[in-house]
């Protein structure tokens, strides 16, 4: 088991949920596949889904809802089997 | 009007500050934390910080802007475009605070901003509208029945939506039954209203819009703009006059726009959007934008009328300074929107620090921008960094000048769409003016395939 950080590909504003009335994309303890979306980053009025990138289990969010993030900044921590 | 607060940022804030200065009006800029040294802040007489960088915490917070107006002693507020510009509650709050809102009354914004009500106004004024439902539809069975009368293909639009969001096209009943609940659900969560408006989808459509100026009793049109070149329903290139309509359509469409505005006693600058069926020459009213538009400079260049200055004069209580016969056009103008996006990476936005900047100039070239060497493209707002606008005594001359002007533009440090715009100028269909609202995306699709 090892920990892996899902990082933002671009600078922008991080969202944990697809819209204000929906639940978060993922919650701690949840298993995710590589293509599963773990959050959105809004840059210049465009929303980019952030995929987990690898299969694993969500440990925690590393960024607050609507946090301003830089490219490369950690968003979600995963535990992976590798 | 002595002191104007500009409730916006970017190139339009710069544009409005300049118009106010030309009229001897003092200016107040509002800035988020990301914009403290932005061009609009540097040009204004006063600067008031209004909150953190994300627009939802600054430029979209009406109370923060009203507090800034009070603090700075402003007596008027210009909303620009986007942000709070078409929010009736904001216009009402500005008026309630005893300030002048540069735009129509809240009730008119509300009326014309609601597609269903705007359509009713158009019909009352004898302005043609696309065959469609008279009101919002909230369930599938009702939608299917309405679609049978209208005829497929059908476009679904959120009754409370805007900016092209939530629009879907369905080819038949089966598709409608799948798409309707989805679209309605999205509209309910985005706008708090799940009602949908159904209308005929015109396959070969041009988007042509008429600029108007009204003082509450008199209205004039300031000719039309062709805005068919769009990507994801965002305009990319606009021109005036439209190369796609003849004199008969121009006359009928502009007089329809004037009738529509007189119907509501329109006051300020506004734009009536029409869809033109390129096959039949029919035109239909789509919606009205009750604000200044991004592409307003092309109208200014062919008519010599400063639309923002006129907005300010009208808001200050002056009557219109033109009769219709005073408004004439000369030559052809084209605007190119330069965005901080990488056209070869599917238009991925590229915020960041700008290095060197060299802007186009020379005869009949106007560049509306906030760009400066060493400035920053923040990730929080839209990606428009400059509008390169050119005039020529005919369309061919204007396009040749556009190529020259865009070739002079240098923006280092961030990707821009400049090279794509120059490539576009080399396309025969663009030179011929032979395009509809789908043409640009089709070309981009072919271009992406060719490079894959």
Automatic annotation (TrEMBL), chain A:
Protein name (record): Biotin carboxyl carrier protein of acetyl-CoA carboxylase
Residues spanning the membrane: none
Residues of the Lipoyl-binding domain: 1-79
Pathways involved: Lipid metabolism; fatty acid biosynthesis
Keyword entries, A-Z: Biotin, Fatty acid biosynthesis, Fatty acid metabolism, Lipid biosynthesis, Lipid metabolism
Pfam families, alphabetized: Biotin_lipoyl
Function: This protein is a component of the acetyl coenzyme A carboxylase complex; first, biotin carboxylase catalyzes the carboxylation of the carrier protein and then the transcarboxylase transfers the carboxyl group to form malonyl-CoA.
Gene3D superfamilies documented for this protein: 2.40.50.100
UniProt keyword annotation of Glycoprotein present: no
TrEMBL record, chain B:
Domain ATP-grasp: 119-316
Matching SUPFAM superfamilies: Glutathione synthetase ATP-binding domain-like (SSF56059), PreATP-grasp domain (SSF52440), Rudiment single hybrid motif (SSF51246)
Kinase listed as a keyword: no
PROSITE patterns according to UniProt: ATP_GRASP, BC, CPSASE_1, CPSASE_2
Keyword entries, A-Z: ATP-binding, Biotin, Ligase, Nucleotide-binding
Entries under PANTHER family matching the protein: CARBOXYLASE:PYRUVATE/ACETYL-COA/PROPIONYL-COA CARBOXYLASE, METHYLCROTONOYL-COA CARBOXYLASE SUBUNIT ALPHA, MITOCHONDRIAL-RELATED
Annotated protein name in UniProt: biotin carboxylase
Organism: Amycolatopsis albidoflavus
């Amino acid at each position: 088991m090892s920990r892996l950080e899902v990082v933002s590909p671009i600078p922008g504003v991080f969202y944990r949920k697809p819209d204000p009335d929906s639940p978060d994309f993922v919650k701690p303890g949840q298993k995710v596949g590589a293509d599963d979306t773990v959050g959105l980053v809004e840059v210049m009025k465009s929303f980019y889904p952030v995929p987990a990138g690898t299969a694993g289990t969500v440990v925690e969010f590393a960024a607050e809802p609507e946090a301003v993030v830089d490219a490369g900044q950690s968003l979600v921590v995963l535990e992976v089997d590798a | 009007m002595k002191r104007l607060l500009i409730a916006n940022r970017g190139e339009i804030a710069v544009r409005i500050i300049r118009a106010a200065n030309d009229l001897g009006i003092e200016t107040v800029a509002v800035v988020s934390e990301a914009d403290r040294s932005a061009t609009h802040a540097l040009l204004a007489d006063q600067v008031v910080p209004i909150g953190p960088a994300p627009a939802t915490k600054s430029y979209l917070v009406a109370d923060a802007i009203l507090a800034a107006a009070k603090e700075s002693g402003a007596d008027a507020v210009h909303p620009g475009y986007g942000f709070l510009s078409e929010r009736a509650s904001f216009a009402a709050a500005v008026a309630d605070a005893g300030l002048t809102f540069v735009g129509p009354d809240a009730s008119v914004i509300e009326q014309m901003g609601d597609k269903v009500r705007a359509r009713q106004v158009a019909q009352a004024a004898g302005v043609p509208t696309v065959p469609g439902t008279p009101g919002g539809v909230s369930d599938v069975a009702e939608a299917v029945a309405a679609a049978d009368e209208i005829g497929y293909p059908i476009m679904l639009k959120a009754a409370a939506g805007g900016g092209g969001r939530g629009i879907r096209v369905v080819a038949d009943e089966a598709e409608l039954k799948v798409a309707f609940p989805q679209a309605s659900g999205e509209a309910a969560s985005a706008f708090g209203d799940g009602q949908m408006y159904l209308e005929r989808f015109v396959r070969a459509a041009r988007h042509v819009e008429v600029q108007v100026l009204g003082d509450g009793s008199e209205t004039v049109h300031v000719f039309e703009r062709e805005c068919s070149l769009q990507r994801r329903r965002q305009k990319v290139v606009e021109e005036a006059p439209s190369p796609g309509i003849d004199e008969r359509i121009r006359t009928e469409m502009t007089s329809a726009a004037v009738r529509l505005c007189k119907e509501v006693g329109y006051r300020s600058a506004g734009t009536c959007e029409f869809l033109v069926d390129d096959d039949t020459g029919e035109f239909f009213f789509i919606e009205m934008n009750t604000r200044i538009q991004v592409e307003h400079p092309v109208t200014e260049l062919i008519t010599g009328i400063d639309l923002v200055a006129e907005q300010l004069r009208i808001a200050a209580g002056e009557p219109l300074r033109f009769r219709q016969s005073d408004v004439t056009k000369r030559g052809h103008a084209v605007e190119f929107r330069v965005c901080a996006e990488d056209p070869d990476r599917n238009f991925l936005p590229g915020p960041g620090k700008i290095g060197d900047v060299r802007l186009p100039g020379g005869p009949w070239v106007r560049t509306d921008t906030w760009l400066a060497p060493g400035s920053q493209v923040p990730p929080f707002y839209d990606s428009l960094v400059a509008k390169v606008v050119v005039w020529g005594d005919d369309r061919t001359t204007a396009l040749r000048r556009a190529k020259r002007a865009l070739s002079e533009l240098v923006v280092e440090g961030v990707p821009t769409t400049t090279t794509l715009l120059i490539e576009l100028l080399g396309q025969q269909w663009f030179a011929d003016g032979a395009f509809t609202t789908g043409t640009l995306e089709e070309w981009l699709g072919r271009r992406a395939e060719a490079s894959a």
